[in-house]
Hints:
Blueprint: H1 19-24, H2 27-49, H3 58-74, E1 98-100, E2 110-111, H4 114-128, E3 138-144, E4 147-155, E5 165-172, E6 178-180, H5 183-187, H6 199-208, E7 214-222, H7 225-237, H8 246-254, H9 259-263, E8 268-274, H10 281-290, E9 300-302, H11 305-320, E10 331-338, H12 341-347, E11 349-350, E12 353-354, E13 357-361, E14 365-378, E15 384-395, E16 398-404, H13 408-414, E17 421-426, E18 433-437, E19 463-465, E20 468-470, H14 477-488, H15 500-509, H16 515-518, H17 525-529, H18 536-548, H19 554-560, H20 568-575, H21 584-589, H22 592-596, H23 603-614, H24 616-634, E21 655-659, H25 666-675, E22 679-680, E23 690-693, H26 699-707, E24 710-712, H27 714-721
Parallel strand pairs: 2-13, 21-22, 21-23, 23-24
Antiparallel strand pairs: 1-6, 3-9, 3-10, 4-5, 4-7, 7-8, 10-13, 11-12, 14-15, 14-17, 15-16, 17-18, 19-20
Helix pairs in contact: 2-3, 14-15, 19-20
Bound molecules: 2-(butylsulfanyl)adenosine.
2-(butylsulfanyl)adenosine (IVH) binds next to strand 3, strand 8 and strand 13.
Amino acid sequence: MNGDVILFSCPTLSSIVTFADMQHKGRSQIRERIEELSFQLEAWARAYHVSDEPVVSDQDYDACLRELIQLETEHPDLRLPDSPSSRVGAAPRENVEKHRHLIPMLSLANAFSLEDVESWANRNLRFLKSPEDLFVPLVVEEKMDGLALSLTYTLLDTTKPEKGYSLRLATTRGDGTIGEIVTPNAKTLREIPLKLAASASGTLKAALGEIPSDLEIRGEIYMDHKGFEKLNELLAGKGQKLAANPRNAAAGSLRLLDSKLVAERPLRFFAYQIAGLRIAQSETLKLLSSWGFAVNPNWTILKSFTELEDRIHHYASLRQQSGAAALSYDIDGLVLKVDDPEKVALLGSIANSPRWAIAYKLPAIEAQSFVESIEVQVGRTGQITPVAWLRPTSVGGVVVSRATLHNEEQIRLKDIRIGDTVWIRRAGEVIPEVIKVETSLRPGNSVPYAMPELCPACRTKLVREKSALLCVNRLCPAKTVERIRHFASRHAMDIRGLGEQLVERFWELGWIKTLPDIYRLRDHETELKVLEGLGEKSVTKLLEAIENSKKQTPEKFLFGLGIDLIGETTAEDLVNQERVNGDLETLFALSEEELVELDNVGPGIAQSLAKAARDAHFRSELDELRELGLENCIKSPRDVGPRKTTEGGRLSGFTFVITGTLDRSRDEIKKDLKALGATFTDSISKNTNYLIAGEAAGSKLVKAQKLGVTIWGQTELDRILAGASPSEL
Ligand code: IVH
């Protein structure tokens, strides 16, 4: 480089910087320049996202950012702690650290109609002992279909609050109590301020009379439609798997380990809450915006039911629109929040949801499509599941090309045929499903769909067992691959990196044909490292993850073994029973008669366990796994005594099964109901008291109806969580 080569220059901020200039500039000038650039970049980011008025072009912003990074690289000691250069990402994280939220992150109860909202409002009035004809003003916001993020901001100097707050931590919601730390990733979003506007401490002092040292600010990470399309184009270009919808894309992106990659993802953020502070919601939104956050502008205050009704109708019609009139991002409803902070404090929360807010769910989006073909998939237990391939159709902004048909019975009941025009539905995170066939558009030569006679993977004749169709070939490649994939999956042995594609590849190479083979993979280390697309680093990580999985608990291991009917809950329940006490050998030594004597074990589970225990292949696989170092997965006596049950809870003594898609994850709902004394099992038996059935409930619902088990939907569930007893429903 000669003396007058132009280095990274920020065209808008002073003039061109030359290499010679830099040589002559003293440290203090460089420090000044770094400060100037940092300040300006943050101010521009704020102007862009808060006032929606970009002051400079993206190119200019990037040029300044590059200059700042260059200076910081050469003078790392001069880098400011909240430098906007964190927007481009930091070194990859090695593992995922957890954080306990200062204030738990609750979820919202749902309303599906105006009547639901009305009864919620009336319940609140009764709770507040207010007159019945009162309307408590509500703030209505869009319910962003993304994922919640909590940002902890801390005073830089508690003795000098005027110095302001800086972003210390960003975490996902996790289970509401403990979330995953994603700070470097969150810092890449320009819509998240690294420092709060200097006015923050002053406005808080005025509003609260004090200045909290930590603030937990919450909002939603999301991807707009344009960003989602861009990301999928990028992934398609790299030959990678496409994201199914914007929410999955956002969630996957936020949890990437390498924040440099996150910086390339079109993630966005809307702030909507300051946890734990007594400030009106309408004021909160204004404050957040003045502090530099992006706040969704589509909020309003409602002062009557008529206004509420109008608002809901507005959104119902917005759903039908496309093009410029439609929203440019996904929402899955509206959130109604009591505005008055005193009332919010009085209302408090029940179980996992606040009383002061409710989600109004907009109806699922439906669209017409066409069945191009029907294919069957083989599950790990050999069960055959039919899937429809559809003409790619946009359902509320997401392109759908596949839908589950559940089982043979569903195809027969709905009479779904290849060549049919069908109505499909996408609701929340459910895999799209076919609701009904438009028979008037059916071609004359169409024939009912017949399930195949042979397994599509190994050509073995399929066997019909009750309503299921099964491949019983032990060595069926599809079954084996599924079984291994299940064993390695997150809720089982959690072997990160051993996903479907690798399992298939290793199976084809003959390296992993059985579960014990996973633990012999290190014998192929040299070959692995030269395998296309893997790389030394990921091989080391994979082998490490395999090694670490030897420390998993017997419940995870038992679930991972993929025994029929032994779901996650049953596995956990079995391992913790006094008689089993963390020892799977003891469990497998019990006879079918002894097994039914255990708590929550019906004849189906007992039969399935006993069958597995008698199977010589299964036993020898277990022996091999023990020899390969998994003895703690097979036996880990519990330190604490037998599982404690909640005495005297509203639901104690009742056994529940949960199925289908509900408003929250099944784990979360279970946690809430367990706190009220409920016991859960995975399958329906005559001992089941209640089935909680969400959308797309399948065989469990049918079985419960047959056995006369009481069935609850989302509404009953909401009422129980709101304080009702089963007898009051
Ligand atoms: S307020 C106490 N406001 O919905 C709960 N949540 O089901 C405070 N969400 O986990 C949440 N948009 O991820 C709130 N405008 C909004 C929202 C919103 C989306 C999500 C959020 C939360 C979930 C609750």
